[in-house]
Design a protein that fits this description.
The protein is mainly alpha-helical. It has one domain: MetI-like fold (Orthogonal Bundle), CATH 1.10.3720. The chain has 13 helices and no strands. It has helices spanning 11-42, 47-52, 67-76, 78-109, 113-125, 134-144, 153-172, 177-185, 190-201, 203-219, 222-227, 237-242, 254-286. Helix 5 crosses helix 7 (153-172). It is globular.
Length: 290
């Protein structure tokens, strides 16, 4: 006869702790989501309704529909700003991924004092505040002509290399050297080995780094504001929102500002939602031997 398995004596306690943790994390998620939800429903209210009742839902008196979105799109040229933001983000992320992944692979496969020094230099750059170098950086970028959306990715490479090299290095350490030795025996030279053997194995970390860098570059305000030549119309979405529609008294229309914020965060939220599972995979894979 089949015996009925008894549940462990501590099983109810485990379940209660799981429920408690779920409730705690649900409350934390609600707290973090509250600003986004507040911006969303305030984007459908007029300025007076936002100022007087910021946390209340739209009603018949202050609901304006999609007028805030229409005014914001027409007044600040958001499509032009979105194009420049897209160009900067795509070029910067692509440059960071290719350069830092090759750098991390070289550092971990060539054992030398210079490689170790360069690795620690990249890690150290992660703790250097941007405010310490922003004025010098803007002067250097102006001297070198890195003031357009097509050249500023070089500047982003310098600031994004620290985290990217750190994450890629952790993953490269977990790749067996025997795989590369076998590729060498088959006649692969270093470029072929990296792009045909190593790079496909680094896919989880590639996606993880791409997501983190995309969210940073797309939402960045200070670096483009200091470096880009705004006299030629080079503005990103954060800069365009900062110069949002103003009334006759020079004050910003809060409703339009909220609508523009919604338009700015929607692309990066959609991108993150599609790739969120890859973040955990990439971080775990990079932490195996990091």
């Amino acid at each position: 006869m089949n015996r009925v398995k008894r549940m462990p004596a501590d099983q109810p306690a485990v379940r209660r702790s799981d429920i408690l943790l779920s409730v705690i994390f649900a409350v934390l998620c609600s707290v973090y989501a509250l600003p986004l939800v507040t911006i969303l429903y305030n984007s459908f209210k007029d300025k007076e309704g936002i100022i007087s009742r910021f946390f209340s839902l739209p009603n018949a008196e202050n609901f304006v529909g999609f007028r805030n979105f229409q005014v914001g799109i027409e007044q600040i040229g958001i499509f032009k700003a979105a194009f420049y933001s897209l160009v900067i983000t795509v070029l910067s992320v692509a440059l960071i991924l290719i350069c830092t992944s090759m750098c991390a692979w070289y550092i971990n496969r060539v054992e030398s004092k210079f490689c170790r020094f360069f690795y620690y230099l990249c890690v150290f750059s992660m703790v250097v505040p941007f405010q310490m170098v922003m004025f010098t950086l803007s002067l250097v970028a102006n001297k070198l002509g890195l003031t357009s959306p097509y050249t500023i990715p070089v500047v982003y490479l310098g600031f994004g290399a620290g985290l990217a090299v750190f994450m890629f290095s952790g993953f490269v350490k977990a790749i067996p050297v025997e795989v590369e030795e076998a590729a060498t025996i088959d006649g692969c030279n270093p470029p072929q080995m990296f792009f045909q053997v190593v790079l496909p194995m680094m896919k989880p970390t590639y996606i993880s780094v791409a997501i983190l860098q995309t969210m940073w570059v797309w939402n960045d305000y200070l670096l483009p504001y200091l470096v880009l030549d705004k006299t030629k119309g080079f503005v990103t979405i954060p800069i365009a929102i900062q110069t949002a529609v103003k009334d006759s008294y020079g004050t910003v229309d809060t409703g339009v500002n909220m609508a523009l914020l919604v338009l700015a965060i929607l692309p990066v939220i959609a991108f993150y939602a599609l790739c969120q599972k890859q973040i955990v995979k990439g971080v775990v894979a990079g932490a195996v031997k990091g």
